[in-house]
Amino acid sequence: xxxxxxxxxxxxxxxxxxxxxxxxxxSFQVYLSNRIGxxxxxxxxxxxxxxxxxxxxxxxxxxxxxxxxxxxxxxxNRPDNVHSVxxxxxxxxxxxxxxxxxxxxxAAPWLSRVWIGDGAxxxxxxxxxxFLPLRCLRGxxxxxxxxAQRVGSLVAAAFLEQxxxxxxxxxxLSRRVGVSSxxxxxxxxxxxxxxxxxxxxxxxxxxxxxxxxxxxxxxxGQILQVSLPLALADALRSGLNTIEDVIIPRQLTLFxxxxxxxxxxxxxxxxxxxxxxxxxxxxxxxxxLLVPEFSRCAARGSKNRIQYLARQGLRAxxxxxxxxGGLLFVLAGPLGRLLYQSNQAGRLLRLYAPFVPMLYMDxxxxxxxxxxxQQNANARYNTLTSFLDVxxxxxxxxxxxxxxxxxxxxxxxxxxxxxxxxxxxQVSGIRLEPGKMARAALCTAAACxxxxxxxxxxxxxxxxxxxQGGCYLLLxxxxxxxxxxxxxxxxxxxxxxxxGRC
Length: 502
Description:
Layout: H1 6-59, H2 62-75, H3 82-116, H4 122-147, H5 151-174, H6 181-210, H7 220-252, H8 261-277, H9 281-300, H10 303-340, H11 343-352, H12 356-371, H13 375-400, H14 402-428, H15 434-456, H16 464-482, H17 488-498
Helix pairs in contact: 1-3, 1-4, 1-5, 1-6, 1-7, 1-8, 1-9, 2-3, 2-4, 2-7, 2-9, 3-4, 3-7, 4-6, 5-6, 7-8, 7-13, 8-11, 9-10, 9-12, 10-11, 10-12, 10-15, 10-16, 12-14, 13-14, 15-16
């Protein structure tokens, strides 16, 4: 038996870890929603959005840069040069993160009052500013370890960080009987900062053991060439995303049918979307590993392998996205009641479930484009669609409420996916197979209709949620096999990944 594909086993390891971490995250989100309600979750999401903007500006594209340059040096079999790459990335990160942290500390009161609408968020933003440089430096180490395919180290650090964040947050929240939104935001920020500090120390220790050292001037030119375009585009897009988060509850209040704008915003962003993206752990793991793999293949000029990985990756993302999207569609109502004791959450989950295949494929397409050096193109597409999102939301929300948000979400994500997929096809030379895609989608729709038929007729699903989900998966598998959506070649491909005989 030949040796298995390292990408496959790394993906399996990272996927298992991501599933556990996401499950813990959703469980904690359910706990928070029960403590502070949907409106409190909405306010917490605004604090996290500003925090994410500060991290994006402070990191200034350095994580992707560290991953891309490290993978290139390793792909050219020059590991001694990695130390100089990381040295330059550290210095670059300290400069930008330090300036961003100072600006966030100074602007925290204004951001809390004007952007977030609650002065109690000031303490959380200033705590975020204190730990921002450590968080950005941790991003450099994560980029290197991903490029070096040291998935086990990343998984161990991720578990430590998640455990630390949840423990600190829970301890701070459990000390009070009644918790306000501002106190919840401060507790969440404290847990996140503690996790960032712990993760940085762990990853720094791992980095020092393995990276060969060689006296060489850091490649500041390459770092600036890769990072600055990403930094500008990411900062612009993140700023637009933060503006989007801020204007959603404000513009919703102008719609006559809105009862509680902050609660509606919190339910969509903080309760429905985490469940919607939970199954994507496997694809996000694969996407994380494909960036350095495509970078190595591009450095070696391995065009055939690039095309093979691109075709198989897109096919896997499409099939998994259809399967997961259909399952969420069928189980949306029971999941909403089980997790949040809310029928509205279930209705919203069913409404957004059809977008799952596109969202999951887009994550993989973006990773492939980054690995092939198309970061600037991706950044342009993301900035364009984020700008369109802000415009659509500003115009549509006061007139159509949540229906306007739904249209904006659909239009901008479809545009972004189409542009990114077109770019990938151009640079890799692959072609799509619309016939197989149409058959797969048709089978999924038929399986969803059959599995949801009892509930649509007002009958309880026998066996509850597991039986209904199992019925859908069984029907989908049979239909895919009958219409030759999946076949023996897919089994052979999986065996080749696992190292079995083809």
